[in-house]
Amino acid sequence: METRHLTMISLGGVIGTGLFLSSGYTIHQAGPLGAIVAYAIGSILVYFVMLSLGELSVAMPYAGSFHLYAKRFIGPGTAFTIAVLYWLNWAVALASEFTAAGLLMQRWFPHSPTWVWSAAFIAVVFLLNILSVRLYGESEFWFASIKVFAIIAFIVIGLLAMFGAIPI
After folding, report:
1. What is the Cα–Cα distance from 115 to 117, expressed in whole angstroms?
2. Cα distances (angstroms) measured from residue 88 to each of 57, 82, 166
3. Is 136 within 8 Å of 8 (Cβ atoms)?
4. Global pTM?
């Protein structure tokens, strides 16, 4: 893969369906300032956790996941619990992402069931993962580009609406 593929894979990885699906709910519940403060606090916490994991991985380069640090410093039971919960987190998150994708598609096709779209996205992801890395990198590049361009379009349209160029 080229640098552009890796850049867009990392950028597209941090832009999830939550930005498109649940940010409006967050703003509705907490208000604009509350949403910014909540996201800032969450971002700071994630930053420090990742900084700590980076320090640990440089100081003790183990082959494996971060649960091995818990095994070394706390015990094997804690490490097992962390590993199982990490797997469960991603299993639930993946199902949630496919459901969210189905809900987003249902906005444009309201008479279609959510499970059809979820199954279609599961099939696309499965096919992309069993094909070559080059095809995966290229498809991920274009999918992430769509997300980035959508965010840029939302910002531009929001600014135009804010300054009266587009009536709301």
Report:
1. 5
2. 23, 10, 45
3. no
4. 0.66
Phi-psi region at 31: left, alpha or beta (left = phi > 0; alpha = psi -120 to 50): left
Sequential DSSP letters for the chain: --HHHHHHHHHHHHS-HHHHHTHHHHHHHHHHHHHHHHHHHHHHHHHHHHHHHHHHHHHS--SS-THHHHHHHT-HHHHHHHHHHHHHHHHHHHHHHHHHHHHHHHHHSTTS-HHHHHHHHHHHHHHHHHS-HHHHHHHHHHHHHHHHHHHHHHHHHHHHHHTTSS--
- CA distance to 21, 22, 158, per residue, from 103 (Å): 9, 11, 23
Residue type, position 159, single letter: L
Q: Report the distance separating Cα 120 and Cα 106, nearest Å.
A: 13
The pair of three-digit structure tokens given for residue 14, joined into one six-digit string: 């941090």
Side chain identity at residue 87, one-letter code: W
pLDDT, tens only, 112-168: 999 999 999 999 989 988 888 888 888 889 989 998 998 999 999 999 999 988 887
pLDDT in tens, 116-127: 999 999 999 899
CA distance 62 to 128: 30
